[in-house]
Amino acid sequence: MNPAWNPNPDDLFGPVTEAERRVWQLQAHAVLATVLTSAHVAGLPVLTWSVTDHGVLSAQIDGHGLPDHLVRDRFSAWVAFLGLDEGWFPVPGGTRTLRALGTVRSRDGHTVALALTASPTGQAPADPGRPDPAGEGC
To answer: Where do the segments described as Disordered lie (predicted)?
Structure first.
């Protein structure tokens, strides 16, 4: 660390160190393990997860090929499960993204920020008279 940058190493407002970032990521991974275990027991659908270098959990619902109502249902189920605050947010290009934000706590008491997103594709529900191209009827 450059002493000119932070003359007092005990200063609370000094620069963030790599060691701190590693700890935040490890804490977020521990929270993610707790969330995934509980979500499996609850029967929730699988999400795509990532952990930022600041220890924030980010989850994405892959809506590719799913009707919008299923994307929203999955989103709502996860929001309720995690106790997040949700809303619609405009995205450049005229699309809208579902986003929910909040915090989750690990078994050892660490609190980690979490962001959940889903992007409905504008697909209508499948026609019950037509076979699903991804299903067994094709």
So the answer is: 118-138
Residue showing tokens 């609190």: 111
Q: State both tokens at 3.
A: 């002493």
- Predicted structure pTM score: 0.74
CA angle 122, 68, 91 (to 5 degrees): 55
137 Cβ contact list (under 8 Å, min separation 6): 131
- Residues constituting the chain: 138
Can you tell me the distance from the alpha carbon of 6 to that of 73, in angstroms, rounded to the nearest whole number?
A: 49
Strands 48-51 and 95-105: unpaired
- The terminus-to-terminus CA distance of the chain in angstroms comes to 62
- What is the tens place of the pLDDT at every residue in 63-86? 888 898 999 999 999 999 999 998
Give the angle 119-121-122 at the CA atoms, nearest 5°: 125
Domain ranges of the chain: 18-118
Query: Given phi > 0 = left and psi -120 to 50 = alpha, else beta, which region is 17?
Result: beta
